[in-house]
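Postdoc handover notes: sequence design on the structure in folder B. Input C-alpha cells:
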C-alpha cells in the first residue's frame, strides 16, 4: 500500500518476494512499471503485481493474507490514516507483519524535512496508541516502536522517522 514509484517493492522482488504494489497515483504506478522493466529480470517481473488503489479502502487479498504489508511515508490525516492502518492489518495473515515508516512529529522541531503539517505526522507512541484502538477481533503485537534518525545530505540535522513493526497474532 502506498508503493509510490516502487523502490521498496522492487527491492523486495529482487530478494525473492512476490509483491503486490498498490498506490493511489496512476503516474507513480506507471513509473514503477517502467522502472521494473529496466531493473528486473523477466522472472522477477512475474513476481511483481502493480495496481492503482486506495490504502484507505479494504485490500483484495484474493481470500488469503499477506506475509508483509508496508506503509511507508503514508502521511494522512487521522481518519484516513486509521482506516489505512486497519486495512493493512486486516490484509495481513496471522503471523505476518505490518511495517510502518513515517515522518515523525518530532521531526518538526528536532529534525529536517518532511511534511510540516502536524496532523499527518506521528511519533512511535501515536502509532502504538492507534494500534490499541483497532477492532478487538484483531490481535496485534507491537514488536518494535522507535524513533530513527535518517541522514539528509547537506542538512545540519537528520530527519526523524517513526518505525513501528506489528505482528498479527494467530486467532487462537
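Designed sequence:
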Amino acid at each position: 500500500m502506498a508503493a509510490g514509484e516502487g523502490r521498496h517493492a522492487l527491492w523486495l522482488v529482487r530478494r525473492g518476494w512476490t509483491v503486490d504494489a498498490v498506490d493511489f497515483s496512476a503516474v507513480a504506478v506507471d513509473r514503477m512499471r517502467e522502472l521494473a522493466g529496466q531493473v528486473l529480470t523477466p522472472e522477477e517481473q512475474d513476481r511483481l503485481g502493480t495496481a492503482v488503489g486506495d490504502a484507505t479502502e479494504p485490500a483484495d487479498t484474493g481470500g488469503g493474507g499477506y506475509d508483509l504489508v508496508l506503509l511507508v511515508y503514508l502521511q494522512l490525516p487521522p481518519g484516513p490514516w486509521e482506516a489505512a492502518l486497519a486495512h493493512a492489518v486486516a490484509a495481513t495473515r496471522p503471523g505476518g507483519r505490518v511495517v510502518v515508516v513515517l515522518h515523525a512529529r518530532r521531526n518538526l522541531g528536532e529534525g529536517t524535512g518532511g511534511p510540516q503539517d502536524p496532523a499527518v505526522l506521528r511519533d512511535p507512541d501515536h502509532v502504538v496508541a492507534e494500534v490499541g484502538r483497532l477492532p478487538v477481533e484483531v490481535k496485534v503485537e507491537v514488536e518494535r516502536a522507535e524513533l530513527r534518525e535518517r541522514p539528509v545530505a547537506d542538512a545540519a540535522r537528520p530527519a526523524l522517522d517513526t518505525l513501528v513493526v506489528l505482528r498479527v497474532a494467530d486467532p487462537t
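Context for whoever picks this up: The longest strand covers residues 92-103. Don't rerun without checking with the PI first.
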